[in-house]
Amino acid sequence: MNERSTGQGSAFAIGLIAGSVVTSLFLVFCQPRLSRETSHGRHQNEARTDQHSPPSQSYHLPQEIRSEMLSRNYLYFSSAKSENENSPTGMPRIESSSVLIVGLGGVGSHTAHMLARSGVRYLRLVDFDQVTLSSLNRHAVATLKDVGLPKATVLCKYLREICPDQTRLILDPVVKMYTGEMERDGNMLDDPPGGGGWDLVIDAIDDVPTKANLIAHFAKRGVRVISCMGAGGKADPTRVHISDLRSASRDPLATAVRQKLRIMGKKEANESNIKITNGSGISNGGWLSCIDDSSRVAVVYSSEKVVAKLADITDEQKEEGMSNFGAVENMRVRVLPVLGTMPAIMGQTLAAMAVCELGGKPFSPVGAERVGRNVRHR
User: Fold this and answer.
1) How many other β-carbons are positioned within 10 Å of the β-carbon of residue 170?
2) Of 289, 301, 151, nearest to 226 (Cα)?
3) Measured over all CA atoms, what is the biggest interatomic distance in the chain, rounded to whole angstroms?
4) What is the C-alpha to C-alpha distance for residues 55 and 42, in angstroms, rounded to an integer?
5) Which pLDDT does position 36 carry in this prediction?
6) Per-residue confidence band for 313, with pLDDT thresholds at 50, 70 and 90
7) 351: Cβ–Cβ under 8 A, 6 or more apart, which residues?
8) Of the given ranges (202-216, 230-244, 270-284, 336-350), which has the lowest mean pLDDT?
9) Conformation bin of residue 130: beta by default, left when phi > 0, alpha when psi is -120 to 50
10) What pLDDT digit, counting tens, does each position of 60-83 carry?
11) Of the candidates 84, 85, 217, 314, which lies 20 to 30 Å from 358 by C-alpha distance?
C-alpha cells in the first residue's frame, strides 16, 4: 500500500515538473514577443503595401511547443493518405499550405481564426472594412476596444497571439476593398510569395457583384473556391448545407450570384463567339461550368426560409438620399438582421471543409432534403 502511494506520488511529481518546464519554456519564448506585438498592433491601421515582404526571423517557437499545440490535429490526420506518393499529406500538408480569405466579417473571421489554430502556414486576409459596434455580436475575435480599427489588422493581432512565430504562421493583411477591377485591386489576389499558388480560396463576401467577380476570377484559373452564401435573417443550424452553386436552394444571395455569373459568362461567350451548351457551362469545359461542379466551387448555404426582413428605410434616409448612407459606393444600405450564431456556424463549416481537404481527409457532405416552399422546420 505504501509502495503504491509512493509510486503514484513520484508519477505526480514527475508530471508536475514536466508541465512546469513546458509552461516555463512558453513564457520565456512567447511572452516578450506577445507584449511587443500587442503594443504595436494598436497603431497598425494602414493597408499593407503592394510588395510582399518576407516574414521576420527574429522569433522561433520551439518545435516541442508547436507540436503540442497541434497534437490533436496530428492525431486526427494521422491516417490521411495522398494520391501522390511524393506529395505531403496530413498535418505536414496543412502546415505548408496557403489560403486566401476575402471578407473578414462574421463568417470570414471565424474561418480565419480556425485555420490559424489548425496550423495553416500562410493566410492572406482581405477586407476594407472596420470593426463597428454592431459587428461585435458576430465577429470571431473583435472586442469593444477594436471598434474603428480595420478588421484585417484586428484579426491578425489576435492570431499572432496564438502563434507568435512568423515562420510558422505568416499573416498578410490587406486593408483594401476587392472590386474585381485589376487597376484598383492591385496584386491582392496574386499568388503568395515563394510560388506554388493558392491551395484554397475562401469567399466570405456579402456583396453580389464582387462575390461573382471573385468566383469567376479563380474559376478561370482552376483554383478551388469554397464560398459562403447568406447568413442573415436565419437561425436554424440543421438547415446548413454544402453543395454546388446550382443546388443552393432558398438562398437569395446564391440565386443572385448564379444570375450574375451567367450574365458574365454569356457576355464573354458572345464576345468570343463561343457557344453556350446547356444554359450554364460553356463548351469545351469553360469556366462557367463551375456553377454545377462542387469540385471547383463548393458553397455553404442555409435552406431555411428567411425569417427576419431588412430594416425599414428611415425618414432620414429618405430625406437625405439613400446614397449618403452606404459605407462605400454601390454597397447595400439597409441593415440586415443577423443572429450571431449563424455566421459563426457557416464560417466554421468553411474552415472544416478547408482543413480536411488540405489535410487529405475530406468528407462527403450529405445533400439537402427537398422541402416545400413554406416549410421552415420539420
Assistant:
1) 20
2) 301
3) 90
4) 20
5) 43
6) low
7) 110, 111, 113, 114, 115, 118
8) 270-284
9) beta
10) 999 999 999 999 999 999 988 766
11) 217
Tens of pLDDT, residue by residue over 281-310, are 554 457 888 999 999 999 999 999 887 776
In this structure, the chain runs to a length of: 378
User: Which amino acid appears at position 343 of this protein?
Assistant: P
Q: Record the cell numbers describing residue 352, joined without a space.
A: 472544416
Q: What is the 3-state secondary structure (H, E, C) of the chain?
A: CHHHHHHHHHHHHHHHHHHHHHHHHHHHHHHHHHHHHHHHHCCCCCCCCCCCCCCCCCCCCCHHHHHHHCHHHHHHHHHCCCCCCCCCCHHHHHCCCEEEEECCCCCHHHHHHHHHHCCCCEEEEECCCECCHHHHHCCCCCCHHHCCCEHHHHHHHHHHHHCCCCCCCEEEEECCCCCCCHHHHCCCCCCCCCCCCCCEEEECCCCHHHHHHHHHHHHCCCCCEEEECCCCCCCCHHHEEEECCCCCCCCHHHHHHHHHHHHHHHHHHHHHCCCECCCCCECCCCHHHHHHCCCCEEEEEECCCCCCCCCCCCHHHHHHCHHHCCCCCCCCCCCCCCCCHHHHHHHHHHHHHHHHHHCCCCCCCCCCCCCCCCCCCC
- Work out the end-to-end distance of the chain between its first and last CA atoms, rounded to an integer number of angstroms: 60
Residues 231 and 107 sit within 8 Å (Cβ to Cβ)? yes
- Cell (9 digits) for 376: 421552415
Q: How far apart (Å, rounded) are the C-alpha atoms in residues 206 and 339?
A: 15
| Alpha-carbon dihedral 209, 211, 213, 219, rounded to 10 degrees | -150
Phi, psi values for residue 201, rounded to 5°: -120, 130
What pLDDT sits at residue 315? Answer: 59
Average per-residue pLDDT for the chain: 81
Closest C-alpha among 166, 74, 153, 154 to residue 121: 166
For residue 121 the three cell numbers come to: 502556414
Residue environment code for 143-165, b if the CB has 16+ CB neighbours within 10 A, otherwise e: eeebeebbbbbbbbbbbbeebbb
Partner residues linked to 202 by β-bridges? 101, 226
Taking the model in full, what pTM does it have? 0.79
